[in-house]
Every structure is written in structure tokens, then in C-alpha cells.
Amino acid sequence: MILSRSSRNGLCTLQRTYWLREMTWRTCPPTCWVRIPFCAHSTWDTAGSRRRRLMVAAGAGLGVCTILAYGNHHRQGAKAELPVPTPTPSFPRFTREEVARHHNEANRVWVTYGSEVFDVTDFLELHPGGRSKILLAAGGALEPFWALYAMHKQEHVQEILQEYKVGELSPEEPPPPSPDDPYANDPPRHPALRVNTSKPFNAEPPPELLSEYFLTPNQLFFKRNHLPVPVVDPETYRLCIQSPSGQTLSLSLQDLKKNFQKHEVTATLQCAGNRRAEMNTIQNTNRLGWSVGAISNACWGGARLRDVLIQAGYQPGDEGHVSFEGLDKDHSGTVYGASIPFKKAMSPDGDVLLAYEMNGEELPRDHGFPLRVIVPGVVGARNVKWLARITVGPEESKSHWQQKDYKGFSRSVTWETVDFSKAPAIQEMSIQSAITEPSPETSVSPGELTVKGYAWSGGGQRVIRVDVSLDGGKSWQEATLTGEEQLPGRAWAWKLWQLDTSVPAGTKELNIVCKAVDTSYNVQPEHVGPIWNILGVLNNAWHRVHVCVGEN
Ligand SMILES: Nc1nc2c(c(=O)[nH]1)N[C@H]1C(S)=C(S)[C@@H](COP(=O)(O)O)O[C@H]1N2
Ligand SMILES: [Mo]
User: Do the beta carbons of residue 271 and residue 287 sit within 8 Å?
Assistant: First the structure.
């Protein structure tokens, strides 16, 4: 539970504790630190009073606080209530050349951000993106790396970094050259999209537009990119498939279009983080706060993965996993990757596509131009875009996104206790539904009321029913479902639903709730609290929308 490290940082010995932001006390100017090794995860989003109680309990009860003073000793209270300390002249000055000498663990690992110098050696193991990523910046500026990953531009990241400050750059040092924007070649996007982060681009359509279309228009389809959108020349593009003999089958876009029969599959894609915003209100996961729109539906056209695998020499009875690599890369050249079971890839009923068309149009750049995998019924993360390489082997993809992300954990697992090897990678998703109209915290007129939404289940399970309540779950009405007929066990597309009802006279407010049922009679859990997890994935709790009733 307790992660604390002692280290020399050139100024004084500090008790270093990563997840302890709420539990860090500091004097102002920052010359004294009081650290309580206590798992702060449980306190992040609790009210101030509970936090104070926990701090007292931690201080008195655990008796493990380390107090190391350097300078004056007056304690000013919880850090959360203090302004972030401004740089003081007490920090030593360094040249960029001096910083550059600290480029490995033997010499300590230093980085700069703006004009400040940080010793991040003790943070290497704690870096959520892995130590190898942070080592790329060793001895130099963080700016070019942070330009790639927008999640660093958050207050809590700055706060963590401040804990590792060891100095400042000499005033005569020039500022770092402003990094080339790795996102400069990203495509233009539709202004209606609600942008979660722009670099990388993560955006969802407004809910009321989402339920307007059974097939989500390409421009409105949610976009989930981990990296810049690669620029691909369709003339020179090749898909490489490793064959069982060890040779490589290389296919051009023309080969894929001409030599393999074209199939069309209507399939819904849902990000594992869909509806994370609701989880973040329980306890912040510090990950993309998707509302209900990290899901969309399209008709995909392309070659069957099965046909291409057979062409490469694989047999239906083979086993293992099929791994995919994209063309989108980070600074270290690491590409996006994921895998699916061979069985799903090869099954004639699996309908896995190598798609070059989306809703009858050429696959848009944001969605993987010129080629992406579509794995119907399976979490968005495995539907690798900008597909470059396919390999088959006994093990799952080694990628970060297969091994260290997109997995589900118990409510009680924390970043300190998580063991990623224990949980299987998410593949098929569970039953899901959400309300898209009316919008939360708006006002509806008394009388007629239309409630709209979507429902979908993973693994090809058909949605058979959507129940809607206007009174928080006391009484229920069945919504009308619309959608396409799909084959049993291959219901890859969502259902849109609608309930035309009336607001009972005298009602002041409505607590609208929806829940769906699939062919296996899988249902959604009532509350999000018990299914909260550190990654904020797989939220399929009953969706709730509160509105007021009044004359508009
Ligand atoms: N190459 C590549 N493939 C990728 C991703 C990515 O960042 N790079 N994101 C994945 C995730 S997490 C999701 S949810 C879907 C989103 O697909 P979309 O942007 O077409 O909606 O793509 C998946 N495939
Ligand atoms: Mo995702």
C-alpha cells in the first residue's frame, strides 16, 4: 500500500511518496516537508473534512510520518489548501550542459521543464507510461515529449513534478526550441464534436446527435487516438502478414481490394472508457472523462481477416493470438498495438474485417486510413487503425495497451496493489445502454415526453429489451427498439430506442433511468460505485438523467 522512497536530491533528504499529494504538508516558502506515507487514493475525492480526519488518523495512528526540516519549521497545513509554491532563488542554477550529464541512473536522471530542473530518478518506476518512456527525455527538455501526450498538461502532473525539483536553469540559458507540433498533420474535424483532448484527438458527438442516426455519420463518429494521425501514402502502403513459414506476405491496398471478396458488416464500436465521467465523480481516475458518446455505429467494408490469414497459410484449427500493429508511433518508435484470440479472427461467424470503407466512403484518416481492423462485438481498443502488420503467435500482443491498459479490476485494487498480469485483457464487452435525450439538468415541459437512447451488447448478443423509468427505478416502461435485423450471435450493431410517454401531473422533476437486457438475459448493474476501477473502464451501470419539469 505504501510507496515511499528516500533519496538525495541535492538539497536535503526527502521522504518521497508518489500518490500522496493530498497528504503532503509543506511550509511556505517550501523549505520543510512533512510526508505521511498513506495511500491517498482513497482520499482524493473525499470532502475536506474526511480528508482532515484521515490525515489526523494517519498522523496519529500510523505514526509513520517522516519529518525532515530544512530551514524554518512552521507548518502551514495541508498542501491542498496552499498555493503551489513559486520558484524561489534558493534553488541552485545549472546550465543545459550540466543537466545533460544527468542522462542515466548512474549519474541520476534529470530533465527540464520551462526553466526548472528536476531529478526524476526516483520517479522512473512510478511513471504510469513506463520507465523507458521517461528515460527518452533524460538530460533534456520534457516539452517535446509532453507535446505528444496531452495528459501531462494537468495540474496534478505539475504538482508531482514539483516534488522532484532540484534546481533552475541559469538565466543565460536559452529557452528550449519550441517542439515541432507532432499533431500538425492531423485532419480537420467536425465542430459539433465534444473534444476531450485535442492532442491526441479524443472527441465524442453530442448525445442528442448520436441517437439521430442508426449509422453514425463518419464526421460525427467518436474519435479515440492515442498518438498523432499518421500520414499514409495509399500508393506505397503495404500490409505485412507474417506467415506460418516465417515469410512475410505483403499486400497493397489494391491487392486487398481486388484479390479478396469484399464484405460489409454493420458494427458498433465502443471505447472501454465510455461513460467514465460517471466513474470520475465517484473517484477521479485522471483519465479521459468520456460522457455517453464514446460509442458509434457504422457499416464497414473490406476484406475478411479470415480470408487474408488463410492466404498467408494459416488453418482454421490453429491456435493462439493475432496481433496487430498500427503506423502511429511515439518518440521511441513504439507503435499502437493490440491482439485478439486466433479463434475470433478465423471464425467464419466472427466477421472480423480489414476495413477500407466506412459507411460507403473511403476510410477517413481519423478512423485508420487506409486500413483498420474491425473486430465486431469487441472493445474499441482491439480495432487497430492504420494497420501495418499482422502476426500470429502463442501469446497476446506485448503492447502497453494489451498488457497494461484496458483491463478490469475490483473496486479495491489501487495503483499500489494492481497486478496487471492477473486480469485478462478486455475483449467482448457487456450489455450497455444510455439516455441521449433529454439532456441532463435541463427542463422538460409537462405532458408529452420522448426519451431516447442507444443499447448494445458485446460478443454478438442481441439487445432484446430496454426498460425506462421516470422515477429513479420504482416503475418501468418498455422502450421501442429500432435497428437492423441481424443473425443470431452476430448482432454486432446497436439498437436505438425511444419511449413516448407522458409526465404525470404535478411532477416537479424526473429521475430518468434506462437499463437494457440482451439475449443471454445479461443485465446492467444498478450503481456505478461498486464497479468503479482504477482505469475507469467498463462502466455499464444504469444510466441516470435528472431533469426538471416546468413551462419552458
Ligand atoms: N493504431 C491505433 N488504433 C487504435 C487506437 C489508436 O490510438 N491507434 N485507438 C483504439 C481505441 S482505444 C479505440 S476506442 C478505437 C477508436 O476508434 P475510432 O477512433 O475509429 O472511433 O480505436 C482503437 N484503435
Ligand atoms: Mo478505447
Answer: no
Rounded Cα distance between 281 and 291, Å, is: 12
Q: Which ligand is nearest to the CA of 536?
A: 2
This prediction's pTM: 0.79
Mutation pick for ligand 1 pocket among 226, 335, 354, 404 (CB with most ligand atoms within 8 Å): 226
Smallest CA separation from ligand 1 atom 10, residue: 381
How far is residue 430 from each of residues 91, 259, 297, 415, 518, measured CA to CA in Å?
53, 36, 16, 24, 9
Q: What burial letters (b/e) apply to 360-383, b meaning 16+ CB within 10 Å?
A: eeebbbbbbbbbbbbbbbbbbbbb
Helix (H, G, I), strand (E, B) or coil at 96: helix
What is the DSSP secondary-structure string of 112-123?
A: EETTEEEE-GGG
The answer to whether the beta carbons of residues 367 and 326 sit under 8 Å apart is no
**Residue 127 among the catalytic residues:** yes
Residue pair 238/327 in contact by the 8 Å Cβ criterion? no
Q: Note the pLDDT tens digit of each residue in 261-296.
A: 999 999 999 999 999 999 999 999 999 999 999 999
Nearest atom in ligand 1 to the alpha carbon of residue 326 is 1
Task: Report yes or no: 204 and 290 within 8 Å, Cβ to Cβ.
Answer: yes
How far, CA to CA in Å, does 552 sit from each of 23, 443, 541? 47, 7, 31
What percent of the chain is modeled with pLDDT above 90?
74
Using DSSP's 3-state secondary structure scheme, residue 49 falls into helix
The closest residue, in CA terms, to atom 18 on ligand 1 is 223
List the beta bridge partners of residue 5.
16
- Please state which of the ranges 102-111, 337-346, 473-482 shows the lowest mean pLDDT: 102-111
Reported as a single tens digit per residue, the pLDDT across 112-159 is: 999 999 999 999 988 877 787 888 889 999 988 888 877 787 888 888
Is 105 a residue whose pLDDT tops 80? Answer: yes
Q: Is the separation of the CB atoms in 452 and 435 below 8 Å?
A: yes
Residue 518 has pLDDT above 90, yes or no: yes
Tell me the C-alpha distance between 369 and 495, whole Å: 27
Average pLDDT, the chain: 86
Cβ < 6 Å from ligand 1: which residues? 221-227, 269, 271, 326, 328, 336, 367, 380-381, 383-386
